[in-house]
Specification:
The complex is a heterodimer of chains A (1054) and B (470). With 1054 residues, chain A is mainly beta. Chain A is built from 13 helices and 60 strands. In chain A, a hairpin with a 3-residue loop joins strand 8 and strand 9.
Chain lengths: 1054, 470
């Protein structure tokens, strides 16, 4: 228990003053290299220091001091008896079992890993900076058991979705809570509603992407409710606990570290496009169209009109249009940090600059991060700390995705027939007079990729129709800690995270489909404030029992303010001011919510091998009805270290079973709901609308307007609930050569607060109430093995990270057979929850006979759309990450393979390139009509095998478009990917010592390198247009293709 | 020590129960409202649906206009996926808000009876329109939020219910006092005399839609005509005004302005309508249509419902798609033509002479409203055949249909009631490639309603006639 306390104190930068005599020495690795940063503590006291860059240390100890404890993550902690010596050199032994690892858990409480009755995964900061991804969350992919990371698009600064142990809610996304140094931070995305996203949105990223990998000391993933009970409601989806770096004692007063990376991004996968057929219809050439359904290009030799209306002699294929359109993206990240520490305090200042250009021409992202973290010992009993991070992110030219606006790049590209030279479009942004120009139009007009002038030149879109944003964000906090008595500490902490984001997206005058131009301005302000007051008591009850109790009070407040102006019709071209617009529609929004919480956490330690922990928390939330706004939730967990309880067992003694731990927990978490959902309200209306979006703006004829709410407010609302239990074991064999961490869990979410659709004829679209149960049951297994380890220092480690989660909708409201969680209304695709199933994609399927054969229309030879049905589960059956690392004399080689089995993805891009006759498969066999396998219904109701060829290949593929039936564009989402390859080289100390540097490390990295296996044609199977804010995945609509990244990295210290 | 801490924590927490907190009071929305603000919202939304979302698909599938394949030919083949929000918005944004306005007005002392009447008249208008498009619809249990799964009432019950609602409203009107006034009354600026005229005329329209299926409505029509108090001048027209200001323009103009830079190239001249005009030597042709850009000066090339356009194809005249044109809900010409029909069919007295007189007056009003010069209009109406027992059905139905050229919602109802199935005026044929054998006769219930309300009738073909359609 003491050790925990010591570690706790150390982490808070407590350096107890020097006593009377000095012990010095050097701590080295098994390879005899000096180890910097090793904790050197006096056993049984609060005195300690840290080794310098070369591994040397000095510590003042009382004259009667007996033992020093040396600990460092990744090495076995050892106790060394002083025996009066003043010089003690120590060689640490690598520890594969991490028995004494400390873990930062809820509310910045540091615990030893062995105490924990729940599964927790840690990723050290050094892992994050070896291969730096602009979004640090991507670095977790495949590394953490029970956590699924998915990058949503290839857009610069795009969002990354994190899901821990499955989906927990029918009505909100299951993103975890992010906590930095004990203070929650925002991971909002504001990527828009489902309609906004499906009809053409921009992936603006999620705010957790602001985290700077260079400032992170460690990331801990708390997966279950027991791990996170103390965070309250938002922790039910898991918590990612981030500890930032602090100043460390070094050889010099000031440590300087520099890390520089350069990386290139290229599109991982382009659609396979045919290059034989020109644009047209049923084999007849027509430059009014941009598709691929014309005649063979080789058949056109004489003079014809091209897409611009100019007469050309024959047509030529341009097979590299897609490749030529996308460019190589570049990322440069430079960071520098200065830190230092003494027994009076510590400080660290970091600065990181990131500059990235994307694979879409003109798309770019910039980010500057300043981080300051400083602690000070005021008196022996009182210490203080303050930390602050300022992040400024700017981006420009983020591409639109989705399906319904004039600016969707991949939809446009799918309409560029191979006879159109993309370079011609690049060099000629504007329409020639031979193309359709609306009568009376003056000024610049986008060149179209079709003679009718419907689709815009993609280069016009990237040059002028830009989405840009800037985010100014500040997060940090301050704490004060006071030792009332040696066994009683009181800590107060206050932290905040706030940002202002400004967005603007422009559509230039002359854009086809929006001739008069428009622009949208968005301002988002978000602020979170949290205070904690925590008392900690540590008491040894008897020789066998130790007690630690924590009680705390928490206040949390969250504020959101948004304003948005849509400005339509520009008088002067490219002047994006409100006064230049013919109409401005403004809307604004404000919300604030608060929670008061009281919590307690009590743990008992029996002889350092049996640990019992009980927690409880009561919350009062502002968003629930006053009569029901208080809710209590408990958790209990236990951990038993078998190997320490029975050290004399044969297999333990012989080190066959080096470590064995059993853990179990049960927890309940209550949660509140969104603010302002309780009253029957009237909304001031800014516009009336129909599906054509030619909205009528109020006031009209001088009249303003209001509308009553469309959601019937709830009565007697209760808090939402989650209960969960978990069993697990950690086993280590042969001194750590073989390890297994196995967890079985189950959680049940009930009394969910959701808006259930009611028939529109009631006058309302939904009713809000407590309803619905979802469960997740799963297994997480992490198998680590060291197949090879030689005396010469060569070492091969392999880690297998297996997750299997079964998500199940247990029940919905009475009589409700289906709940649409996300609707692609009008596009025929829905994500639905049905009792007894998980979340599924639903859409019109093909008509089938009782045996399941597709029914073919005997006149056309084509399939027939049937009723809507479930097209597949959106979540994978299991995922597996396989990481192999090889190290030899300072060289680390690492590769990670990521596998997903099961789940489906619906791709509209596939539908578009196929129905447009652009996909390679539409051009096979000279487009000879064929017989589609299926059956024909006989007059007597029986079926016979289809013998009618399709009316035309064009009609066959056109019918497979999502708008007819999404079934054929829905694929098994299984894949195997080479996710990451990394080579790191630490220059030997002997070499470095001759330079002014303290250490030099080089790295090469490749990410998202190779789709080894996929069942989805044309696209990367990981794409998802819904982003992080909406429920569901597996929908791809005009996504920007994902990137393959290759980069290098140089780190050195002075 | 621990005790002190507990006490401290409890003290801190006592402030946290939100007992008298205003924190969860929504700063973005109101908990009270003036009924007139709900009324202006419901009216605007209703007009927008009529003039926008319900115009194009209905005009194309009923062959009043032709698409020329500019947006595909599917709508002409009865594809109704573009009538996506009209059902829901009529219930949630129009009828619900009218019901809430009535509730608020009834609970405010003194009760503003005129406001109640205005809301009820709009309700009857919206319910009857919805029923004439979809057939059996939720009525008695609809748009209140009180019943989770509203029953679908028979069309006859809905339309009778609308008549009762109108009678109730007429009984509450007091022209001497104020109801919902300008600017929130976007139709009549608070003129309760005109509201009473519209209520009676709307009753007449509803009765006429019913009379083929329920002949007893003939005498009701006669009584209604006898008591008068209906629309009697162009100044009585029930219409929603649009303005040539951004965001307040008639959406029919916005469509062309935004997508086509102001060049009308989407709505074409439909052959059955054009043929009828030609057969009548009707002066409205150049007012209804404009020649295609590559066509001669007076060359009007009509398209059948599934023909693709060419540069010679005639288009719906841009003058009818101007930004400041009102959405007409009930016109004086419609009133006169209905009166002519009532007299010709013997529901009201006067005989064929009076019927002919009313018809000619009605057609004249119609021509003038489309911009035909007075002299030309007078000449045309005078050469129209006098109504007789043999010709009145055809002659009147032709004129009633043409009068509704820019009002497809009413025009489609007129066409369906103009003759027994297969004998409609003007004659039309099923477009090639349509999924059913007959003409389109109903809108299909939207999936949102089908999926959430088990009372929704199922198994209806798009050419299955509604109750009124005899």
């Amino acid at each position: 228990m003491k050790k925990t306390l010591l570690a706790f104190l150390l982490l808070y930068g407590w350096m107890v003053q020097a006593q009377s005599r000095i012990v010095s020495g050097k701590v080295t690795s098994p390879e005899n290299e000096g180890l910097p940063g090793v904790n050197v503590l006096l056993k049984g006291a609060t005195t300690g220091t840290v080794t310098n860059a070369d591994g040397t240390y000095q510590i003042s100890v009382p004259t009667n001091a007996k033992t020093l404890v040396y600990s460092f993550i990744g090495y076995k902690t050892i106790d060394v008896a002083l025996e009066g010596r003043s010089t003690v050199d120590v060689k640490l032994v690598a520890d594969l079992t991490n028995l004494d690892e400390v873990v930062v858990t809820a509310n910045a409480i540091v615990r030893e890993k062995k105490e924990l009755g729940y599964a927790v995964s840690t990723v050290g900061g050094t892992e994050l900076v070896k291969a730096r991804d602009p979004n640090v969350l991507n670095s977790l992919a495949g590394r953490v058991a029970g956590v699924r990371i998915s990058q949503q698009s290839g857009s610069v600064g795009g969002s990354t979705k994190v899901m821990i142990r499955g989906a927990n809610s029918l009505s909100s996304s299951s993103e975890p809570l992010f906590v930095v140094d004990g203070v929650p931070i925002s991971n909002s995305s504001y990527n828009g509603s489902e309609t906004d996203i499906v009809t053409g949105g921009v992936d603006v990223g999620n705010r957790a992407g602001d985290l700077n990998p260079d400032d992170i000391e460690s990331m801990n993933v708390l997966k279950g409710a027991a791990a996170s009970a103390l965070y309250g409601s938002r922790a039910r989806n898991g918590v990612i606990v981030i500890t930032t770096k602090r100043g460390k004692v070094g050889a010099k007063k000031m440590n300087i570290a520099v890390n520089s990376s350069y990386r290139t991004d290229n599109v991982l996968r382009f659609p396979d496009i045919q290059n034989q057929y020109a644009q047209g219809n049923l084999g007849v050439y027509n430059p009014r169209l941009g598709n691929g359904w014309g005649p063979a290009i080789s058949s056109i030799t004489g003079p014809v009109l091209d897409y611009t209306g100019a007469t050309v002699q024959g047509l030529t294929a341009h097979p590299d249009n897609w490749k030529n359109f996308f460019v190589t993206g570049h990322t440069v990240i430079n960071s520098v940090s200065i830190d230092g520490a003494s027994d009076q305090g510590d400080y660290r200042i970091g600065f990181t600059n990131l500059k990235q250009t994307g694979t879409v021409p003109g798309s770019e992202l910039g980010r500057n991060t300043f981080a300051i973290n400083a602690g000070r010992k005021i008196t022996d009993k009182l210490t203080s700390r303050a930390w602050l991070n300022y992040v400024r992110t700017t981006s420009d030219g983020r591409p639109q995705q989705g399906s319904n606006t004039t600016n969707i790049l991949s939809t446009i590209l799918a309409g560029v027939n191979t006879t159109i030279d993309i370079n011609d479009l690049k060099n000629n942004l504007f329409a020639p007079s031979t193309q359709t120009v609306p009568a009376g139009w003056t000024g610049d007009l986008a060149r179209a990729i079709d003679l009718d002038g419907i689709q815009n030149n993609p280069y016009f879109v990237t040059a002028f129709n830009k989405f840009s944003n800037s985010v100014d964000r500040l997060y940090g906090g301050t704490s004060l800690s006071y030792d009332v008595a040696p066994w009683f500490n009181v800590t107060g902490r206050a932290g905040t995270d706030f940002f202002t984001e400004n967005r603007r997206s422009t559509t230039r005058r002359g854009t086809r489909g929006r001739l008069n131009g428009q622009f949208e301005t968005n301002e988002i302000y978000e602020r979170e404030l949290q205070t904690d007051l925590i008392g900690t008591v540590t008491r040894r009850i008897s020789d066998d029992w130790t007690f630690k109790g924590i009680v705390g009070h928490q206040f949390n407040q969250r504020t959101i303010r948004r304003s948005r102006v849509l400005s339509d019709g520009l008088n002067i071209d490219q002047l994006y001011t409100f006064a230049n617009a013919q109409s401005n529609v403004a809307s604004n929004f404000y919300s604030r919510r608060e929670i008061f919480g009281v919590y307690g956490d009590f743990s008992f330690d029996y002889r350092n091998f049996l640990f019992l922990n009980v927690t409880g928390r009561n919350d009062w939330s502002s968003t629930l009805p006053v009569s029901n706004n208080s809710y209590f939730y408990p958790s209990v967990s236990a951990s038993f270290i078998l190997t320490e309880a029975f050290p004399n067992m044969g297999i333990v003694k012989r080190d066959i079973l080096s470590y064995a731990k059993l853990r179990a927990n049960y927890a309940n978490v209550g949660s509140d709901e969104d603010p302002y959902q309780l009253a029957f309200t009237y909304n001031p209306l800014s516009q009336a609308s129909d599906i054509y979006t030619f909205n009528i703006l109020y006031p009209i004829g001088g009249a303003s307007a209001f509308g009553a709410t469309n959601v019937l407010p709830p009565t007697n609302l209760r808090p939402q609930q989650q209960t969960s239990y978990e069993f697990g074991t950690e086993l280590n064999f042969f001194g750590g050569r073989l390890g297994l961490d196995l967890t079985y869990y189950r959680n049940l979410n009930y009394d969910q607060i959701i808006s259930i659709a009611v028939p529109q004829s009631t006058g309302y679209s939904a009713r809000r109430l407590n309803v619905g149960e979802i469960s997740n049951t799963g297994i997480e297994a992490m198998l680590t093995v060291t197949p090879l380890k030689t005396r010469s220092g060569f070492r091969w480690d392999a880690a297998f990270n297996f997750n299997r989660n079964r998500n199940r909708v247990e029940s919905l409201a009475d009589g409700l057979t289906e709940f649409v969680t996300t609707s692609g209304d009008g596009f025929g695709i829905f994500v639905v929850a049905r009792p007894g199933e998980t979340f599924n994609i639903q859409g019109v399927g093909w008509l089938r006979d009782p045996q399941g054969n597709i029914v073919i229309n005997p006149t056309t030879g084509l399939r027939t759309p049937g009723p809507r049905r479930l097209l597949g589960n959106i979540y994978p059956d299991w995922t597996l990450g396989i990481n192999n690392s090889f190290s030899f004399k300072g060289i680390d080689f690492n590769f990670l393979i990521d596998m997903r089995k099961g789940g489906v993805i619906n791709s509209q891009t596939v539908g578009i390139v196929r129905s447009g006759g652009q996909a390679a498969e539409t051009a096979v066999n000279n487009r000879t009509p064929f017989i589609d396998p299926g059956v024909i219904r006989n007059a007597d109701g029986t079926y016979r095998p289809n013998d009618v060829p399709v009316a035309s290949v064009q009609q066959y593929w056109s019918q497979l478009d999502n708008s007819v039936s999404p079934e054929t564009n829905t694929f098994d989402g299984s894949y195997t990917k080479l996710r990451e390859v990394r080579i790191a080289y630490n220059l030997p100390r002997t070499l470095v010592n001759r330079t002014p540097f303290g250490s030099i490390a080089l790295g090469l990295e490749g990410r998202n390198l190779w789709i080894i296996h996929s069942n989805v044609p044309h696209i990367d199977p990981e794409a998802n247009v819904l982003g992080t804010g909406l429920i569901g995945e597996g929908l791809e609509r005009g996504s920007i293709p994902s990137s393959r990244s290759i980069g290098a990295n140089l780190r050195f210290t002075f | 020590m621990k005790k002190i801490l507990y006490v401290g924590l409890l003290a801190l927490t006592a402030t946290g129960c939100f007992k008298n907190s205003t924190l969860n009071i929504d700063p973005n929305r109101s908990t009270t409202v003036d009924p007139s603000l709900l009324f202006s919202g419901a009216s605007t939304q209703f007009s927008l649906l009529r003039v926008g979302e319900l115009t194009w698909p209905v005009a194309l599938m009923s062959q009043m206009w032709a698409s020329g394949g500019r947006w595909g030919l599917e709508q002409a083949k009865y594809d109704q996926t573009r009538v996506r929000s009209a059902w829901g918005r009529t219930y949630t944004d129009v009828l619900k808000n009218l019901n809430v306005a009535i509730k608020v007005a009834e609970s405010t002392q003194p009760v503003n009876k005129n406001a109640l009447a205005q809301c009820k008249i709009m309700k009857a208008f919206a319910f009857s329109q919805t029923s004439l498009l979809w057939g059996d619809i939720p009525f008695s249990q609809a748009a209140t939020g009180d019943v989770d799964l509203p029953a679908f009432d028979k069309q006859a019950d809905v339309l009778n219910g609308c008549i009762a609602l109108l009678d109730e409203a007429i009984g509450q009107i007091d022209p001497a006092s104020k109801g919902i006034i300008a600017p929130n009354d976007l139709y009549y600026g608070g003129d309760m005399t005109k509201w009473r005229k519209f209520a009676n005329s709307l009753k007449l329209r509803i009765l006429f839609s019913m009379v083929d299926a329920d002949p007893t409505k003939g005498s009701a029509i006669g009584q209604l005509l006898a008591s008068g108090n209906m629309i009697a001048a162009t100044t009585d027209t029930m219409q929603f005004q649009y303005y040539n200001q951004p965001g307040r323009q008639n959406p029919r103009y916005s469509f062309t302005a935004i997508f086509r830079g102001g060049v009308q190239s989407d709505w074409y001249c439909s052959k059955p309508v054009y043929d009828l005009l030609v057969s009548l030597n009707d002066p409205r042709i150049p007012y209804f249509y404009q020649p295609g850009p590559a066509a001669g000066a007076n060359e009007y090339v009509a398209l059948n419902s599934i023909e693709n356009y060419t540069t010679r194809s005639a288009l719906v005249n841009m003058n009818l798609l101007k930004p400041d044109l009102p959405e007409v809900s009930f016109s004086y010409s419609e009133q006169l033509l209905l009166e002519a029909e009532a007299i010709a069919r013997g529901f009201a007295t006067g005989g064929f002479d009076l019927a002919t007189q009313r018809m000619r007056a009605g057609v004249r009003e119609s021509l003038l409203s489309f911009g035909v010069p007075t002299a030309q209009a007078t000449t045309y109406v005078n050469q129209l055949p006098a109504l007789t027992a043999a010709n009145y059905r055809t002659v009147l139905a032709q004129q009633q249909y043409l009068d509704l050229f820019m009002r497809p919602v009413e025009g489609w109802t007129q066409h369906r009631r103009s003759g027994v199935i297969g004998q409609e005026v003007p004659a039309m044929t099923t477009p090639a490639g349509a999924p059913v054998a007959g003409l389109v006769r109903r809108l299909l219930y939207r999936s949102e309603e089908v999926n959430s309300n088990p009372n929704t009738p199922s198994g209806l073909a798009v050419d299955a006639p509604l109750w009124f359609d005899k």
